[in-house]
Automatic annotation (TrEMBL):
Keyword tRNA processing in annotation: no
Protein's organism: Rhizopogon vinicolor AM-OR11-026
Name of the protein in question: Alpha/beta-hydrolase
Domain of life: Eukaryota
Keyword field: Hydrolase
InterPro entries: AB_hydrolase_1, AB_hydrolase_fold, Carboxylesterase_BioH
Length: 348
């Protein structure tokens, strides 16, 4: 039977408590190991010269190309960018989308440059000629990448144009770094406010961590390389397949972007944009089956001052299929004498 003597209980406490305290002190008073830099995976730049990618999308696809090492924690990420157009031109940033790198602007960027704009293009982390850090591809990762790149090229601000997921990046960038936006933001076939139900079951399955683990295994990668080298689809489809087959972290980067990135949940960014003096343009095709046309109207509901240019029968790749229409709309919008017109424009 336990003693009811209070002095006995005190003596036991005096023996046990210091021991417990010392144990806890040594267990919890030490810091964990120093943070480990993320693993960095290579880009198209490391493929052999025999790879078809060098013919489709070489490093010098645009003039004025260069690399920069951008900081990410304790790591440095190699990023490819291009500056085209006159050095004293009005500055425009073009942000590509989820899977296709800066080649997607091939029929738009030169038009802007020829009309006197200084255009900055770049490959997002994990795409094209930019390395792929093994991290979560969330919105902050992409907005910070652009802010660091603009700092590197010594741009105080610029007009911001985003395509597809790049539209989500443009919206979040405007919210995170409003001082870097020079009064104009354009969204082309823009994502950013899609809901989980708007993403196909197949896309959700393929972007799951389990599937990504399987597809990273050497046998699957070998199969994808053979498939990519044997097939000759359209230009953009081929660069997509080559990235998927040859870049070790491309599929995981795309999957993480789909799960965690600027595809969904950016209503707040568009709402914040509505509270600024920025002029806003939305360009969207009625036949877009990737980011449905309804999202153009939903974005406009969030940003009432936005102009909406509707491209009749335009799909998701309108910078390729309707490049002249997109270029014309952007040139009108970026001009100094642009003024908002309440009635939407429709391009047949």
């Amino acid at each position: 039977m336990m003693s009811s003597n209070p002095f006995h209980r005190i003596n036991i406490s005096l023996v046990i408590l210091p021991s417990l305290f010392l144990t806890a002190y040594y267990l919890f008073a030490s810091f964990p190991r120093s943070p480990i830099p993320p693993i960095i995976h290579t880009s198209l730049a490391h493929l052999p010269s025999s790879s078809p990618s060098w013919n489709i999308y070489p490093e010098n696809f645009y003039n004025g190309g260069a690399y920069v090492n951008l900081p990410l924690g304790r790591a440095r990420i190699l990023v490819r960018y291009w500056l085209i157009g006159p050095e004293n031109g009005r500055r425009v940033v073009l942000i590509h989308g989820l899977s296709i790198p800066a080649i997607v602007w091939k029929d738009v960027a030169p038009v802007l440059a020829s009309r006197g704009y200084r255009v900055l293009l770049y490959d997002l982390y994990g795409r094209g000629y930019s390395d792929a850090p093994q991290v979560t591809y969330d919105t902050t990762l992409f907005t910070t990448q652009l802010a660091l790149l603009m700092q590197h090229v010594k741009w105080d601000n610029a007009f911001i144009v985003g395509l597809s997921m790049g539209g989500g990046i443009a919206a979040a960038f405007s919210a995170h770094f409003p001082h870097l936006v020079n009064g104009k933001v354009a969204f082309v076939a823009s994502a950013g406010i899609m809901e989980s139900g708007d993403i196909s079951r197949t896309a959700k399955f393929m972007s799951s961590p389990l599937v990504q683990t399987v597809t990273a295994l050497p046998p699957f990668q070998h199969y994808m390389r053979r498939l990519a080298n044997a097939s000759k689809p359209a230009e953009l489809q081929e660069i997509l397949r080559l990235q998927s087959a040859h870049l070790p972290h491309y599929n995981a980067a795309v999957a993480s972007s789909l799960r965690d990135g600027p595809i969904r949940g950016l209503h707040f960014a568009f709402q914040e944009l509505a509270c600024t003096s920025n002029q806003v343009l939305i360009i969207h095709g009625t036949a877009d089956d990737t980011v449905l046309y309804k999202f153009a109207s939903k974005i406009r509901d969030l940003v009432p001052q936005a102009d909406l240019v509707t491209i009749s029968d335009g799909g998701h790749d309108i910078t390729i299929t309707h490049a002249s229409d997109v270029s014309a709309a952007l040139l009108r919008f970026l001009a100094d004498n642009y003024s908002y017109k309440p009635a939407q424009m429709s391009l047949a």
